Amino acid sequence: MTDTLTPVLTDNWDAERAWTLAAYEERGGYAALDKAFAMAPDDVIAAVKESGLRGRGGAGFPTGMKWGFIPQDNPKPKYLVVNADESEPGTCKDIPLMMASPHTLVEGVIVSSYAIRANTAFIYVRGEVLHVIRRLQRAVQEAYLAGHLGKNIHGSGYDLDLIVHAGAGAYICGEETALLEGLEGRRGQPRLRPPFPAVAGLYASPTVINNVESIASVPSIITNGPAWFASMGTEKSQGYGIFSLSGHVINPGQYEAPLGITLRELIDLAGGMREGHELKFWTPGGSSTPLLTPEHLDVPLDFESVGAAGSMLGTRALQLFDETTCVVRAVLRWTEFYKHESCGKCTPCREGTWWLTQTMARLENGQGSEADLDLLLDQCDNILGRSFCALGDGATSPISSSIQHFRDEYLAHLTHGGCPFDPAASTAFAPVGAPA
Amino acid sequence: MSTPMSADNSLERAGLDQKTWDELREIAGRYPEARSGLLPMLHLVQSVEGRITPEGIEACAEVLGLSAAEVNGVATFYTMYKRKPVGDYHVGVCTNTLCAVMGGDLIFERLKEHLDVGNDETTADGKVTLEHIECNAACDYAPVMMVNWEFMDNQTPESAVQAVDDLRAGKEVHSTRGPRLCTWREAERVLAGFPDDRADEGPTAGPASLAGLKIAREKGWTAPAGAGQGESK
């Protein structure tokens, strides 16, 4: 029986100066390199496939399969790009990982690049995290000096250059083709697919783009074996993952556990909801995943079960809101976010998010009518599945799910002539036990 | 590799110093294709000029062989690039849903009132630029404020006011999970890829980052032993 929490990626976060090469190597860091270099690159890909690792950036696509799509007979250079643009509201796992242990990511980059036969790799990190960028820059510099990067790594004959690239503020660059545009020095607008990045990505060359946590998991798979990784988690969602609890819980934070743990277990570990209050609604994996309620507390947090419950596992960004929170206010704010971050490329998203915001604002202010709920759902219907990328789809998730679960609360705004909630009661600095 | 244009009498045409021109070319030279350097190059322009200036746009365009319009198109897309001068300290209050609900809205209102500025405006002394920002990936520390893109975790209206007062008074202020705060221009230089050698300041992780690990240690919970580990549990 696997333990409830299984620290792997977070295991060295309480170590003294864990971000340094010395501390990382003392714990056996960079040992996966020699093991990987003794294998054929295709065998590294096979091991990652066998482990069952699925993308940890939200979509859950099998990582090894993605690597297998790289056409090795293509004469162009191959590239690995790490998506470190963590910006999905609620998501806060990659940033502490890179802050505490940037070498875990760098080691993963080297093994993964070797597998797909890339000689140049990039970490595209959002620009708004200065100290994380400092630690990444330092880790890469240290890895070069130690011979983990550069020419003929560990005498293997394999060469790799790694470039840390800071973004400049754009949620859309978390979308992999928009990220490539940003990395090519352009406006971050998604590309039409096909061709997929595996065939024509960065500089129109075969490119793998993976989330930080996915790449950081690779050394543990190579070191301990794919069966070890697959022994954790559920049948189709294997391995461990970092679960990020935020909001009205006693001890918010990062909890690394096998996939399939439930929110009830996690809240219990986190000391329960804050004193005198109870859970009202939550997101399983960021604001783009439909809202769930207390009736979903026992849903196993794996890709299949959360999907069957009508939402998505996403990034395991568990944002927890208690009964002091107005769901209409919460959803309006997310809607304003999507409007702000829409890149403007396609009409349903660019125009639709504006219309959604106007309709939502009217309802939050107690204006409008019950017919506006149907109008909202109609607007969502014209965006979902009709946008260029997933940003538009994501914008509809909180709206349609909140109307499904909290229709009465929308109506209460109309009868009340405005928001019936006191925004001070939901704050972290509200007096304990304050009424809603 | 594409070749950045060599230096000529362009120095007089755009008022940047020789060092900046050299560094812009250095950034472009880091990449297989020079244009990939544009985002960090614009960060460098901000570190030197205090904002994105027409001169900075012209310089990037010249180094990369692009039109000024192409560079402008990029500079206006990303929210970290500023057209108006930014103060010594860029103060960003997260007002995305989770932080807003946890108190970010009240903190932002309080700072607007206290500093007598609106969103995206700078105090008369040129010290503080206030802006409400989107999710900065620190939700377990909500409500969050960023100063020059360093984390100021678990804020209250009072702690936020104290921080901006201290900054305006020239006192030393530290990130709650990182180093002593530098100026916005110094921060932009790091983002351009010129490290300031301060990676070793601050802790490995903040308390919330360690919440699960602390419990695992207390209970003796670990991942299963693997092929690469010595002993089995």
From TrEMBL, chain A:
Query: What InterPro entries is this protein classified in?
Result: ComplexI_51kDa_subunit, NADH-UbQ_OxRdtase_51kDa_CS, NADH-UbQ_OxRdtase_suF, Nuo51_FMN-bd, Nuo51_FMN-bd_sf, Nuop51_4Fe4S-bd, Nuop51_4Fe4S-bd_sf, Soluble_ligand-bd
- Where on the tree of life does the source sit, at the highest rank? Bacteria
Q: Which GO terms describe its molecular function?
A: NADH dehydrogenase (quinone) (non-electrogenic) activity
List, separated by semicolons, the cofactors it needs: [4Fe-4S] cluster; FMN
Pfam families the record matches: Complex1_51K, NADH_4Fe-4S, SLBB
SUPFAM superfamilies cross-referenced by the UniProt entry: Nqo1 FMN-binding domain-like, Nqo1 middle domain-like, Nqo1C-terminal domain-like
Q: Where is the NADH-ubiquinone oxidoreductase 51kDa subunit iron-sulphur binding domain?
A: 328-373
The EC code for this enzyme is 7.1.1.-
UniProt catalytic activity: a quinone + NADH + 5 H(+)(in) = a quinol + NAD(+) + 4 H(+)(out)
Q: Which UniProt keywords apply?
A: 4Fe-4S, Flavoprotein, FMN, Iron, Iron-sulfur, Metal-binding, NAD, Oxidoreductase, Quinone, Translocase
Enzyme class, first EC level, given as a word: translocase
Q: What does this protein do?
A: NDH-1 shuttles electrons from NADH, via FMN and iron-sulfur (Fe-S) centers, to quinones in the respiratory chain.
- Which family would the database say this protein is a member of? Belongs to the complex I 51 kDa subunit family.
The protein in question is named NADH-quinone oxidoreductase subunit F
What is the species of this protein? Nocardioides astragali
Taxonomic path: Bacteria, Bacillati, Actinomycetota, Actinomycetes, Propionibacteriales
UniProtKB/TrEMBL annotation, chain B:
Q: Which UniProt keywords apply?
A: 2Fe-2S, Iron, Iron-sulfur, Metal-binding, Oxidoreductase
**Cofactors that this protein relies on:** [2Fe-2S] cluster
Q: Could you tell me the superkingdom of the organism this chain comes from? A: Bacteria
TM regions (residue ranges): none
Which GO terms label this protein's molecular function in UniProt? NADH dehydrogenase (quinone) (non-electrogenic) activity
Per the UniProt entry, the Enzyme Commission number(s) are 1.6.5.9
Q: Which PANTHER family match?
A: NADH DEHYDROGENASE [UBIQUINONE] FLAVOPROTEIN 2, MITOCHONDRIAL, NADH DEHYDROGENASE UBIQUINONE FLAVOPROTEIN 2, MITOCHONDRIAL
By sequence similarity, the record places it as follows: Belongs to the complex I 24 kDa subunit family.
- Under what name is this protein listed? NADH-quinone oxidoreductase subunit NuoE
